[in-house]
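So, could you explain the following?
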Amino acid sequence: MNKAEFIEQLSKKTKLSKKDARTALDTALDLIVSSCAKKDKIVFTGFGAFEARKQKATQRINPQTGKPMSVPAKMVPKFRPGKAFKEALSRK
């Protein structure tokens, strides 16, 4: 399912117009991204948690040259599914 299909389903379930459903989805996603950027953790009980985690600096090998290169530490997004989400997937 892509974003347009998701918005259509959201519109039908909530009886919102497609425009309002798109605005609601975009706002929710923006809030998640901006909160993670501020290193806040967002928890939806039963669904899961979004957070930013620090990834350590590592040494990798460039596949084209074979030479080692360093990859600096960085922040990466992390999603941890909740219990209800995991259970719903295991029933299917």
